[in-house]
Amino acid sequence: MTDNDLKHIEFVIYCIETYKGRKKLDGKTVYQNLKEAGAVDYIDKNYEALHMFGDELIVWNIDEYLKNRCQTQTARA
Hints:
The protein has about 80 residues and is mostly helical. The chain has one domain (about 5-75). Helix content is about 85%, strand content about 0%. It contains five helices and no strands. It has helices at about 5-25, 25-35, 40-45, 45-50, 55-75. It is globular and about 40 Å long. The model has no long low-confidence stretch (mean pLDDT about 90).
């Protein structure tokens, strides 16, 4: 594992913890929901942009990702 991999993992954990705290949810539920929706991969793949954001913008970005994902899945049904 490279230092870059470790930075990405730490950042994903930080985002999950931040999201959990802002939404007042338990960590297991948040992780499972974000993982199922593909948001964990989204956070990892967008590390370069997201790591420069503050907590509020990180949470907003995750919410927008989830909202867009939900709308896309509804449109496909």
